[in-house]
Amino acid sequence: MKPKKILHSAWEGLMLNKIRSVLTTLGVIIGVASVIIMLAVSAGTEAAIAEQINALGANLIIVSPARGVPGAAKTMLIDDFYAITDQVVGITGVTAEQAPPALTVKAEDITLESIAVIGTTADFPNVRDYAVSSGRYFDMSEDDRKAKVAVLGSGIANDLFGETDPLGQTITVGSTKLTVIGIMESKGMVADIDYDGRIYLPINLVFQKYMPAMTIGGDRVKTIYVKAESQENIPSVITQITSVLAERHDVDASKPDFSVQTQQDIIATQEATTSAFRDLLAWVAGISLVVGGIGIMNIMLVSVTERTREIGLRQALGAQPSDVLLQFLLEAVILSLAGGFIGVIIGVGGSYLFGALGTMETAIVPVSIPIAFGAAAIVGIFFGYYPATQAAKLDPIVALRHE
Q1: Do the beta carbons of residue 258 and residue 249 sit within 8 Å?
Q2: What is the pLDDT of residue 35?
Q3: Are 181 and 132 in contact (CB under 8 A)?
């Protein structure tokens, strides 16, 4: 038989029971759609994480106490910030941060509870790529003399003053009165931190007024951020920082009590986590495809039984066993490819829908479409081969006698 006629016969065989054919493809549809949607969710999550981390600032190096090292949190001091500033070359800025427990903030008759207060140094806006929208940030001299000034996140400014200009106004943070000198630009949520809901103070003022108990042995800082001149300078800057702090902390540079990370290090760590999650999702989607394939094989075996006399008649009229095999194999492949095509449409549409309507960011992975479609074809061939061989092996005389 000619290939075109075999294909026509296969199509007619499927159309004999349209509803059953459609239901048979459901497993493949779900499997293919699952592959595309799950990979889109995983890729969107990775992209969102990378975007949030990069939003911390460009060419950023993050220095913090090492985890799992006893007493490490007590060794990172403001003097380390000054040492890095003075001794490390190839950088455009350094800033240190420390945060006391959340405080109550008042402005006239408005009171806000549990507000995040961040002590920083003067170069914070430059290092963190976080501009002041109105007014100004405090300078080094104000930080050194513990000036009672504050810079508000845009959200806090709006909550406290509404339409009134906050600049020059007095607020009470804890029990200390401060003068508002600047408002930061709106930045929103970055890595689960609401930058617009924070108040920024000179770090030395924070040490004096809000964390006096931690000054024994030196003023501790939570994190030091260093901005390299370029991506190419980052390895050299990391080496210098490690050398400076290892000497200051009197530790072996190979076993420091501090960690030095770049944004790419953090992204790589996060990607390793999401990669394991993605692999798990891929296995789940793969199982869906296998289940769909088993459904195709089951229905094709039923079809062979139902059409035994038809098979015998075709063979009696001259059809070869290879023609019968090819016809039933084509039926299985057509079912799986139809399911794959519909699954691709649902998967792509579902990915966009998840991204548009849900809180989860999605990003279509182009390679997932041919992979999912190809997997559907393989499922059709693999699970359709056994029923097709069973049909091809039928004895024409026995088949014609079948009731």
Answers
A1: yes
A2: 81
A3: no
CB contact at 8 A, 361 and 48: yes
pLDDT tens figures, 203-262: 999 999 998 766 555 688 999 999 998 888 888 999 999 999 998 988 888 888 888 888
Q: Determine contact, residues 142/149, Cβ cutoff 8 Å.
A: yes
- On the 0-12 / 13-18 / 19+ scale of CB atoms within 10 A, 388 is buried
Does the pLDDT at position 2 exceed 70?
no
The closest alpha carbon to 87, from 265, 254, 234, 247, belongs to 247
Residue that is written with structure tokens 């579902």 in the block: 350
Structure confidence by residue, pLDDT tens digits, 328-351: 777 777 778 888 888 888 888 888
Using pLDDT thresholds of 50, 70 and 90, give the confidence band for residue 1. Answer: very low
Whether pTM > 0.70 for this model: the answer is: no
Nearest to 220 by CA among 253, 172, 258: 258
Beta strands in 305-372 (DSSP E): none
**pLDDT value at position 292?**
79
* DSSP H helices in 162-262: 203-209, 234-249
Which residues does 253 contact at the CB level (< 8 Å), separation at least 6?
Answer: 242, 243, 246
Q: Distance between CA atoms of 78 and 93, rounded to whole angstroms?
A: 15
Render pLDDT for 253-271 as a digit per residue (tens, 0 to 9).
888 888 888 877 766 766 6
Beta bridge partners of 80: none
386 dihedral zone (left: phi>0; alpha: psi -120 to 50; beta): alpha
Residue type (1 letter), 348: V
Helix (H) or strand (E) holding 374: helix 368-392
Q: Cα–Cα distance between 185 and 167 in angstroms, integer?
A: 14
pLDDT tens for residues 296-313?
Answer: 787 777 776 766 666 666
Per the CB < 8 A criterion, the answer to whether 383 and 331 are in contact is no
Contact 149, 197 (CB under 8 A): no
Dihedral class, residue 224 (left if φ above 0, else alpha if ψ from -120 to 50, else beta): beta
Residue closest to 114 by CA, chosen among 101, 99, 97: 101
Which residue type is seen at 99?
A: A
Q: Exposed, middle or buried by CB within 10 Å (0-12, 13-18, 19+), for 142?
A: middle
| Alpha carbon distances (Å) from 209 to 70, 119, 212, 219 | 27, 11, 6, 12
